[in-house]
Write a structure and sequence with these properties.
Elements lengths: L2 E5 L2 E7 L3 E4 H5 L4 H4 L10 E4 L2 E6 L4 E4 L9 H7 L5 H8 L8 E3 L5 H4 L3 E3 L5 E3 L5 E5 H9 L14 H5 L3 E4 L3 E4 L2 E5 L8 E7 L2 E5 L22 H15 L5 E3 L8 E6 L5 E6 L1
Parallel strand pairs: 6-7, 7-10, 10-11, 15-16
Antiparallel strand pairs: 1-2, 2-5, 3-4, 5-6, 8-9, 12-13, 13-14, 14-15, 16-17, 17-18
The structure holds zinc ion (ZN).
Zinc ion binds next to loops.
């Protein structure tokens, strides 16, 4: 199912590489299970269901893709653990968009579940760009961090998702906040990784924001419900506050990267001053 809405002069569609499973404890950090499982029920392996939401933005002039799911390059063992579905290309087909039509691809960061279909592994083992006519954008610091292959998060970075695109000149590396095309810009929100970027969509006086892994699902709106995966949880808390203190009063449409049931919605301050989803879209 594709959910698609007009947004100012833009058309926004939520595409998906399918659901996958991650450990519920890792997704909610220090939050006790009796609290998080009310919002995200765990299976017998203690995993919760997550989405891999790609946003297709048609501005009238450009066809922009935000994030590219998990892709088809995950080692078989990991693919089995996550039960990765590899559905993004079908999702494009259902939306009536050919990969050749995409002219901009934005990666908020380079964890494998955000940039997996940047490239495709062909049956002969070769790696080719999935979107042959696109310019790709990512933060330079993410590439550098991925190349370090640190003990903490080496598994999150698969260089075939970006190195071939840097080598062939298709990927532009950013050093900070930037306008990509009119109405589409990126802004760094550190914490999950040091240079994770949110994507801002501005049209008709309204703003939508793909906040990526700073707030991965609508169950993560409490500012302290940060993930075990976050490299700097204290910065995440500060950056979530910075985000919410703009997104709520300015009525931003919030796009959630990993929420398989509520990929977008509006947020409000609820009881006890805690942020909550006001309205799923
Ligand atoms: Zn991530």
């Amino acid at each position: 199912m594709i959910s698609s809405i007009p947004f100012g002069d833009m058309q926004l569609s939520i595409l998906s590489d399918g659901t996958y499973f991650l450990d519920g404890g890792a997704m909610f950090g220090v939050v006790p299970k009796p609290l998080w499982e009310k919002r995200a029920p765990a299976n017998e392996k203690n995993q919760i269901t997550l989405g891999t939401n790609t946003v297709l933005v048609r501005t009238g002039k450009h066809t922009v893709v935000i994030e590219t799911g998990i892709g088809n390059k995950l080692p078989e063992k990991l693919r089995a653990i996550y039960d990765a579905r590899q559905l993004l290309m079908q999702s494009f087909q259902s939306a009536g968009v050919r990969p050749e039509e995409v002219d901009i691809v934005i990666n908020t960061h380079l964890h494998f579940d955000h940039c997996g279909w940047n490239t495709t592994r062909m049956p002969d083992g070769s790696i080719v760009p999935t979107f042959p006519n696109a310019r790709y954008f990512a933060h330079r610091g993410e590439v550098e961090h991925g190349h370090l292959q640190l003990e903490r998060d080496a598994v999150s970075y698969i260089s075939d998702n970006y190195d071939p695109l840097i080598a062939n000149g298709q990927m532009t590396l950013l050093d900070g906040d930037a306008e990509i095309v009119p109405g589409v810009s990126v802004e760094v929100f550190p914490g999950h990784t040091a240079q994770m970027m949110a994507v801002m969509l501005d049209s008709g006086g309204k703003r939508a924001c793909y906040i990526s892994d700073l707030i991965p699902t609508s169950a993560h709106l409490d500012v302290t419900w940060v993930m075990g995966y976050d490299l700097d949880p204290l910065t995440c808390i500060e950056q979530r506050k910075r985000f919410l203190h703009r997104a709520i009063p300015e009525h931003w449409l919030v796009l959630f990267t990993h929420d398989h049931q509520r990929p977008m919605g509006y947020v409000q301050w609820g009881a006890k001053g805690k942020p909550e989803l006001r309205e799923a879209v």
